[in-house]
Design a protein that fits this description.
By secondary structure, the protein is α/β, with parallel strands linked by helices. It has three domains: 322 residues, Rossmann fold; 154 residues, Thiamin diphosphate (ThDP)-binding fold, Pyr/PP domains (Rossmann fold, 3-Layer(aba) Sandwich), CATH 3.40.50.970; 137 residues, 3-Layer(aba) Sandwich (Rossmann fold), CATH 3.40.50. It is built from 24 helices and 21 strands. It has a seven-stranded mixed sheet, with helices on both faces. Helix 14 links the parallel strand 10 and strand 11. The longest helix is centred in the N-terminal third of the chain and has 22 residues. The chain is globular, with a radius of gyration of 30 Å. The chain starts with 17 loop residues before the first helix and ends in a 10-residue tail after the last helix.
Length: 704
């Protein structure tokens, strides 16, 4: 009888015999081949990981234990083993099974994937959350040799080796892009490294040697260098060992018994372990084995299938021989390999350098001259208020984890680090990894906040889209230095992030009018369950007195003042300049209403339209690039309203912000605002120019 049809879930795999597992592997390949011949899809990679999938699911207890599939196009066997056989024929079709892992399909799918290189960061996030909670789930990630070379993967490997979280990394090498094993010595070293006795004796030897008077430290260093030189000579994984990750390999990727035993012993070791597995892409379908490029997917060459026959007639035979495993290759030849094993060199700690220089203070600004006696105390900047509020929130909620990329002081997170060192992570200059790591933490039930400067968050746009927003993960993006930054010039102005984020599904985007509203919006961010980007500038606060920070309904603006002629709609701290412009126009006879939107996404559309009714002109204010920004969102709302309500057809809308046709050069923020007319005189002049162009007069009755 077919075995795949009667499986209820991955737990059923543990009761199967070796011959039954061989039958099952063939059935899985047969199902994938016949389905993909009809629907298209990633054939070669999924055929190559069948035994890896079986070994992981026999060893781990998914979904309690977590299996992460980097990229995800090799997860077809995983889908078949986790309850989706009856719908597998709908692969990649409307309302059918997705071609990548999808959390909406199964609790066994850890994340919604699709891009290469994300798996290691996600897995580390899951492992970090486990360690913070002191829970016991095991974490494994399968990553391909090509994806391992992506920048995000390398950032993650560096951080994984530094933090030493217990984690199993399966390197699926199917393209020979990783150096091959040099033979039996490599496998012998792996066997030694996997042994508990070696792990314990090595640590004891190092401790005893180090205590030898006079020569102890020198002897220890020489011993470690000798061990590393042997590994470097005999195994291809010295890079991983140097990063602090125990390397095991190279293991035969289609030998289920060897894989299962290797994974079992590797995941029991302390710290991260990478098991290098050699697989054949397209295994089980000869055209795909011969042409790995064309049959990678998703659009495949025409596929010729063998006629239906008894599955058992085509199954490879397998038998065990002591500690060796003999299996039949696709061409009928016999392959015999020894049981696996491995060891790790002492971890080399990564140095996480703070990007700021010693000449900068806790707010990341240049240190001013020593204050003279009697000088007024400076108002703290927005970063300081963010950090203070985050520490308060961290006291009440142990799920909150703070992450930054080489800037603990500039972002204020050094305050959080001092209060909660076990919940603070500095990944170094690795913004992509920071954002995807936060996604893994969020998927594990934590509430991460990633504090980055707006200009550096640009580096992680794909991770914001693919990892945070696609998974609708409750990650808080603290977007520091939003708007004009000043002397650092074109590369550092935080002017592009709002338009870049506005297009993204699931993401809430907010900015406070002052430091007290920042505190309230930060609490709002943690009180809801979607991605949340909180934008705030480098500026000092307005000196607003402390109030109790109350959560704000998501998407709710506020009316600051009423008016009959004009309506100002503002986003962010530019609100106070808009109020000054309103005062100046009031002195000239204009009645001006001011509305603080707080949110650009979701926009408080109805409040804005209600306040605009009867006005002659609506002006939007933002310190962000105009193209696709806050003003564009308001314009879109009005254009939609004009289609059905004539009352809005006579209302002009004028967005004011940073021009989108050029970069903003260096200079003080005060000077830059003057040059691009975002200071109070410049804003006033722009509004008056619009009034003159429209030919409207104060006190005129608007349309209703």
């Amino acid at each position: 009888m077919p075995i795949l049809d009667r499986l209820q879930g991955p737990a059923d795999l543990r009761g199967l015999t070796d011959p039954e597992l061989a039958v099952l592997a063939a059935e899985i390949r047969e199902t994938i081949i016949r389905t993909v011949a009809s629907t298209g899809g990633h054939l070669g990679s999924s055929l190559g990981v069948v035994e890896i999938t079986l070994a992981l699911h026999r060893l781990l207890e998914s979904p309690r234990d977590r299996i992460v599939w980097d990229t995800g196009h090799q997860a077809y066997a995983h889908k078949l083993l986790t309850g989706r056989l009856d719908r597998f024929h709908t692969l990649r079709q409307i309302d059918g099974i997705g071609g990548f892992p999808r959390r909406s399909e199964s609790p066994h799918d850890v994340m919604d994937g699709g891009h290469a290189g994300t798996g290691l960061s996600i897995a580390e996030g899951l492992a970090t959350a486990r360690d913070i909670r002191h829970s016991l789930e095991r974490i494994a990630v399968v990553v391909g040799d090509a994806a391992l070379l992506s920048g995000l993967s390398l950032e993650a490997l560096n951080d994984i080796g530094h933090r030493q979280s217990q984690l199993l990394i399966v390197l699926n090498d199917n393209e020979m892009s990783i150096s091959p094993s040099v033979g039996a010595l490599s496998q012998y070293l792996s066997e030694i490294k996997l042994s508990t006795a070696w792990q314990q004796s090595r640590g004891a030897y190092d401790r005893v040697t180090e205590k030898i008077p006079v020569v102890g430290p020198v002897a220890l260093e020489l011993s470690r260098r000798f061990r590393q030189s042997v590994v470097s000579f005999a195994q291809p994984g010295q890079l991983f060992e140097d990063l602090g990750i125990t390397y095991i390999g190279v293991m035969p990727g289609h030998d289920l018994r060897v894989l299962e035993e290797t994974f079992r012993r590797a995941i029991a070791l302390n710290g991260p372990v990478i098991v290098h597995v050699r697989t054949q892409k397209g295994k089980g379908y000869k055209p795909a084995e011969a042409d790995q490029v064309s049959f990678h997917g998703a659009a495949l060459p025409p596929m010729t299938l063998a006629p239906e026959a008894d599955t058992h007639d085509r199954l490879p035979a397998a038998r065990t021989n002591g500690d060796a495993m003999t299996s039949s290759a696709a061409d009928g030849s016999q392959v015999t390999t020894a049981r696996a094993a491995g060891e790790g060199a002492p971890p080399s700690a990564s140095v996480m350098a703070d990007r700021r220089t010693p000449a900068h203070n806790a707010e990341g600004q240049a240190e001013p001259p020593l204050a003279q006696a009697g000088e007024a105390k400076k108002t703290p900047n927005y970063t300081a208020f963010f950090a203070r509020e985050l520490v308060e929130l961290g006291k009440a909620d142990r799920r909150i984890v703070a992450i930054t990329a080489g800037m603990p002081t500039g972002t204020g997170l050094n305050k959080f680090q001092a209060a909660f060192p076990d919940r603070f992570i500095d990944v170094g200059i690795a913004e992509q990894h920071a954002v995807t790591l936060a996604t893994g933490l969020a998927l594990a039930g934590m509430r991460p906040v990633v504090a980055l400067y707006s200009t550096f968050l640009q580096r992680a746009f794909d991770q914001t889209v693919h990892d945070v927003c696609q998974n609708d993960a409750p990650v808080v993006l603290a977007v520091d230095r939003a708007g004009l930054v000043g002397e650092d010039g074109t590369s550092h102005q935080g002017m592009f992030t709002v338009p870049a984020q506005r297009m993204l599904p699931n993401l809430v985007i907010a900015s406070p009018k002052d430091e007290q509203e920042l505190r309230a919006l930060l609490r709002t961010a943690f009180a809801q369950d979607h991605p949340f980007a909180l934008h705030y500038p480098r500026d000092a606060g307005f000196g607003a007195p402390d109030i109790e920070p109350l959560e704000v309904p998501v998407g709710r603006g506020e009316v600051l003042r009423d008016g009959r002629d004009l309506l100002f709609v503002t986003f962010g701290p530019i609100t106070y300049r808009a109020l000054e412009v309103a005062d100046a126009l009031e002195a000239k006879g204009w009645s001006v209403g001011v509305l603080n939107a707080r949110f650009v996404k979701p926009l408080d559309r109805q409040l804005i339209l209600d306040q605009a009714r009867g006005k002659q002109l609506v002006v939007t204010f933002e310190e962000s690039v105009l193209t696709g920004g806050f003003g564009s969102a308001v314009l879109e709302a009005f254009e939609e309203a004009r289609m059905t309500d004539p009352a809005y057809r006579g209302i002009a809308v004028r967005p004011i912000g940073i021009p989108g046709d050029r970069f903003v050069d260096h200079g003080s923020v005060v000077d830059l605002r003057r040059l691009i007319r975002l200071d109070v005189p410049g804003l006033t002049a722009q509004v008056e120019e619009s009034i003159a162009q429209l030919g409207i007069t104060a006190g005129a009755v608007g349309q209703s």
